[in-house]
Amino acid sequence: MTIVTSSNVRIGSVTIRRDTEGRFRLNDLHKASGGEKRHGPSYWLSNQQTIDLITLLQTTGNPVVTLEGRNGGTYVVKELVYAYAMWVSAEFHLHVIQTFDRLVEAQSEIAEAKAARQRARLEAPFLTDAVKYNRLAAGKDLKPYHFSNEFDLINRVVLGCSSKQYRAAHGLAANDPVRDTLTPAEIRAVEHMQRLNASLIDIGMPFDQRKARLHQVFMLRHQRALIAETVRLEA
User: Fold this and answer.
1) Rg of the chain's alpha carbons, rounded to an integer?
2) What is the superkingdom listed in this entry's lineage (predicted)?
C-alpha cells in the first residue's frame, strides 16, 4: 500500500524523506525498491545516461545534492526519481508514477479546500445579512444566537453535530475554527450549504423546511463524495 500526504511520500513501509528544497532522498527510494545491491544509488549515478540527464537538469537548478549527518544521503529532483525507478524495474517505475500522481492529487485537493474555506469566509456575511434582514422585515428581535443557529444548522447537516460537539470530539479549543480542520469534501459541502441556506432565508422559507431542503441537497450532492473521501483517507 502506498500512502501519500501533502508533504510526505511513503512507498510500502518506507518514508521517502525530502530536503528543504523538496528533493527526494535516493537512499530511501533504493530501500523502497527492495534494497538490492545492484540497484544502489552509486551504480545508477555512474550510469552515462544518468549523467547526461543530470547535466540537462542543471540548467534549471541543482538536481542532485549530497548531505552529511543524521539525515544525510543523496537527494534528487522528481525527474530523477522517475529515471531511477525506471532503471530499477518497470514494476517499480509504475509504482512510483502512481505514488506521485496521488501526491499531486492530494496537493490539488488541499489547495481547493483552502480556496473553498476562503470562499466560505467571504460568503459568511451573506448568510448573516440574510438572517438579519429577514428578521427585521418580520419585525422580530435579533439575537446573537440567531446567527450561530444557522451556522450550526449547516454543521449538523454536513458533520452530523454542532460545532461545540465537533470541537469536543476532535480535541479543539472553544475558539478554534472548526472549518480549518475539515477535509476538502467537507469544506466544499459546507460552502455549498452556506450559500443555499442564505438563499432560502432570503425567500422566507421557515427553519424546518430549510433544514429538510438542506439535508435533501446534501444527500444528493455531497454524501457520496464524503463517503468516498473517508474510505480513501482510511485506506
Assistant:
1) 25
2) Bacteria
Q: 103-106: which pairs have CB atoms within 8 A and are 24 or more residues apart? A: 103/4, 103/9, 106/4, 106/5, 106/6
Sheet of 73-76: strands edge to edge?
Answer: 24-25, 73-76, 64-67
Q: What are the residues whose beta carbons fall under 8 Å from the beta carbon of 130, sequence distance 6 or more?
A: 197, 198, 199, 201, 202
Mean pLDDT value across residues 124-136: 91
46 DSSP 8-state letter: T
Amino acid (one-letter) located at 52: D
Answer yes or no: are the C-beta atoms of 38 and 46 closer than 8 Å: no
- Residue 19: all three cell numbers together: 530536503
Its pTM stands at: 0.56
The pLDDT tens digits of the residues spanning 167-198 come to 999 999 988 888 888 888 898 899 899 999 99
| Average confidence (pLDDT) over 202-220 | 95
- Give every CB contact of residue 73 below 8 A, 6+ residues apart in sequence: 17, 25, 26, 27, 28, 66, 67
Q: Cell for 144?
A: 446573537
Give me 143's grid cell: 439575537
Which CA distances in Å does 59 have to 22, 147, 193?
A: 18, 57, 49
C-alpha to C-alpha distances, 90 to 25, 82, 138, nearest whole angstrom? 20, 11, 70
**Separation of first and last alpha carbons in the chain:** 8
What does the block give as the cell for 224? 457520496
- How confident is residue 2, by pLDDT bands cut at 50, 70 and 90? very low
User: How remote is the C-alpha of 124 from its chain's centroid?
Assistant: 22
Q: Is 58 exposed, middle or buried (0-12, 13-18, 19+ CB in 10 A)?
A: exposed
